[in-house]
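Final report, Chapter 2: Outcomes

The project's central promise was a pipeline that accepts a single protein chain and returns its three-dimensional structure in a standardized token representation, suitable for archiving and comparison. That pipeline is now operational. To close this chapter, we reproduce one record exactly as it appears in the project archive, with the input sequence first and the structure output second.
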Amino acid sequence: MAGSQMFTTDLNDPPTFEKVWAALMETRAALMETRTQIEKNAEQMKETDKRVGELTNRFGDMVEHMVVPNLLSKFKSLGFTFEVATRDYKITDEKNGIFAEVDVFLQNGDKVMIVEIKTTPTTDDVDAHIERMGKMREYADLHHDKRKYLGAIAGVVTSDSVKNYALKHGFFVIVPSGDTFAIIRPEGNYHIREW
């Protein structure tokens, strides 16, 4: 309180208990008002985050609806004939502690393609998909499924660095192209990874 104008160094007018108490109460009121404003801001931010999350989820659902119907034909043009496409495929194996959610599960008698769809994929999403692929392989092995498991990352806005990171890890990358989308396969220094 060194610079406070409430207290003076005038010995003829020393601070009284009442003046000190009034200053403390004024400070307390200001702090309470600040705290209330901070709580209001936090609530508003929470609501904004919730709405952005809902919008992102809806956008992701829309992307899935646009991508899934054409995946079978697009992969067929790359030499992969999948017979079944399943959206929102889940594994809940409590006995073995294996839990996984897959956006799109494509399969035939020889291969399975696990597709993760994100609005704006990140390298963390690629890492999470690598982990998911490991869980899927573990689950398949426990059920004597010897098919080869492949992975793909789809995104509406995919940066070159994320695209290259996914390709480097052996994933196909699905990106918008004109009215539809294109599938980029790992080539050159990158190789398709099988789980």
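Archive annotation: The mean pLDDT is 86.
This record, like all others produced under the grant, will remain available to the consortium after the project formally closes.
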